[in-house]
Structures are given as C-alpha cells and as structure tokens.
Predict the structure.
Amino acid sequence: MAEPVILDGKKLAGEIREDLKQRVAKLSRKPVLATILVGADPASATYVKMKGKACESIGMASRKIELPATTQTDALLRIIDELNQDPDVHGILLQHPVPENVDERAAFDRIAAEKDVDGVTTLGFGKISFGQDAYPSCTPAGMIRLMDEYEIPIEGKHAVVVGRSPILGKPMALLLLERNATVTVCHSRTKNLEGHLATADIVVAAVGKPNFIQGASLKEGVVVMDAGYNEGNVGDADYDSCFKKASHITPVPGGVGPMTIAMLLAHTVQAAEKAAS
Ligand code: NAP
C-alpha cells in the first residue's frame, strides 16, 4: 500500500494564524482573550502561557487572571461575570482542570455564549448538537478543519471516536454526525472495541493513553486522527503501526495540537469581529 498522507497541522495552523493576523490588523480594537488559571498546576500554567503567546503572535492581546487554588466557586463566578460584562474582552478561557473545591461545570456555564470561544458551555454544546451557530470545542473543530483541508470525505463514512470527554470525544462525535458520518463512540465500558475499530473508515483517538490504538486493529486505508498528547510527545495512537494501515494520519506533535490553538484564536477573532459589527 502507498504511504499515507501526513496531515500537517503545524503548517495549516501557521496559515490560519497568518490570515488571522491580517483580520486583526483591520480591527480598530484589539481582540482580547481572557485566560483564567485557578491553582498552580504546572501543565495548566504552561498551556495558559502558550495560549497567551499565541494571541500576541497574531496581534491580539491576552489578559491573564491567576487565582489561588483555594478560590471558591462564588468568587470565580463573580470574576467571570465581570469579564462577561467587560466590552474589552472578547473571549474567555477557563483552564481545565480546576481544583476540586470549584464547581467547574457551574463556572464554564457562567461564561457568556458570545465569549465562549473554547466551546465549554452546556448551551454551546447544545447548539452545536442541533447544528446551530456556536463556537465548537477547539480540538474537535481543529480536527474537522484539518480533514477539510486535505479534502477527506466524511459523509457516509464510519467514524469511530474512542473517548467521550466533554471537550473532545463527545463534541467530535457531534461534529462528525453533523457532517453525515455514521458515528460510533467508544469508551472505557465499550465491549468489543476491536470489532468497532476493524470497521472504521475514520478513527479518532481521544483516550489519554499512550499508543492505545494499534495499527493491527485497523483496516487498510483508514484515516487516523490522533488527538492524544502524552508525556514524551506520544499520541494515543501508535504512529508506526497505524502508519502502515492508514491513508491519512496526524503526527504527534505537529498534527492536532497546533490546530487546537489556531481554532481558539480564530474563534476569538470572530467574536471580536462580531462585537465590532
Ligand atoms: P479524558 O477526559 O481522560 O477522557 C478519556 C476518554 O477515554 C474517556 O471517555 C474514557 O472513557 C476513554 N477511555 C479510557 N480508557 C479507555 C479504554 N480502555 N477503552 C476505550 N475508551 C477508554 O481525556 P481527554 O481530556 O478527552 O483527553 C484525551 C487525550 O487528548 C489526552 O491524550 C489529552 O492529552 C489529549 N488532548 C489533546 C488536546 C490537544 O490540544 N491536542 C486537547 C485536549 C486533550 P470513560 O468516559 O468511560 O471514562
């Protein structure tokens, strides 16, 4: 079989950022993304920093709000309310996960729909599931954008999404369904995962376990979208064995990861454009 096409998320994300830079330059007010970090989890702190830098790289601004791990839900909700009302803020990102003392769902749902650029609210999720206008969760949105760039057909295909988290597996399943795929969602209680994988035209790996999806489980010509990111730059799909079976495959790093940030920026620029119109 011919070698698969490697889906270059890094390159596409770069092109998207270039386009966004030009759109930002046309706005009279800089788009602003407010990021909220509760506690001092080092990985979360790194992600927030990366997102702030990405904003600056396209001429946007970010406003960092850092709160102690002891922050209570009420206090966080008040801060979100202030950001909702602040006309200078166009997008709000609450970094997941928050410490246990905070009700994360309540905090996510407090974010105003027009500023929910990370696609975390129940309302946004509901709208997406009905095909209505809302910002979808960034990682799934990035995967669909990447598939479109490479003109990978989705309609009528059997897509198997492994993982059902609210930020990744579930919204990805919805977006694929919107595009007329036949979708199977697998999770930790799924029986016969191998049987589902064997019939997949598209596999989305969103498990959080390094090298979990093995090429031996897949059919020839499958499209492998690996959202996983584990220590040591390892995805949730075993790249080498999946490479042998795939028609298209995302590398880790340089596949889905850069697309996530590009989508966050794109949604925030869109929110700023809407606010300006
Ligand atoms: P998560 O919340 O831990 O969810 C993992 C999902 O995998 C759950 O739905 C779980 O099922 C399922 N699962 C666990 N073991 C399984 C098994 N043996 N068989 C089938 N399903 C199983 O993880 P997440 O936040 O969605 O993240 C998933 C991966 O994506 C991670 O590697 C993460 O680092 C990566 N990620 C990347 C980006 C990016 O920007 N590229 C963004 C977010 C996440 P249950 O629901 O039954 O527990």
